[in-house]
């Protein structure tokens, strides 16, 4: 399944009082995420010889639940779930389910479908997601990278996908659906599913983080990361990849800087560059993660587009992204 990666982030205290230098990127990449467990995205009825049945609904499963185990077997893919259900042939089984970060067990039996003879749970499940986003930064010393500036959530349930594994891959932007007020635009492109540039270690509300296989994959001039106190309203620029693999710098204006936000809307910006307005109409889906620069420092990343104002969007502070990357690495 392909998702548009642009839609929030606890403003953590800075883990490091000294400014940190990273390379701002703005490159489009493919992002592949494989979930920890399988996510329930819907419930359904199964036609059996005895009539309609829904074991998932009967045992209390809900949309947004994550099934991590069937009996003692860990499951992380749709294929694993299907195999276990066929092997059990309708025997009673215990499901371990994560709901609102709490683990619980429910007991049920799969029902045999009279149409194809397969044993089914009566739940639509998802185990992976993929799409195009924008790399925000890379640490030239460690190869640590951050992208998106927000987490990858399931498109049906809005639940943050729990990461088991994932990777970023090369991508190229083939076209743009221009945004207009009331209808967000989007970047359209393709990415390689066979060549990985780096592996993911965290999918968080403040961004997706990982390590490059080769820290020298992306080159550029490191810049300091601005502290929250250094970010101000006024002129700034963003780096964006809206055609092919070419990254260009465009002018924007930071309209507001918010304090003590509970999501990734730390600042509001407006695109002022006529070139970008002509190409995209402003902020579009797929630009999530585009780095925001001001006064020679990385101040943040684009995260959201304002639906009613296509030329405007929100951004997260880069300091908050780096703090979250460090916190996730230490847990």
From TrEMBL:
Residues 102-331 form the Peptidase S55 domain. Keywords: Hydrolase. SMART domains: PDZ (SM00228). This is SpoIVB peptidase. It is an enzyme of class 3 (hydrolase). Its EC number is 3.4.21.116. It comes from the Bacteria. It comes from Evtepia gabavorous. Coiled coil: none annotated. InterPro entries: PDZ, PDZ_6, PDZ_sf, Peptidase_S1_PA, Peptidase_S55, SpoIVB. The keyword Zinc-finger does not apply. The gene is spoIVB. GO terms for molecular function: hydrolase activity.
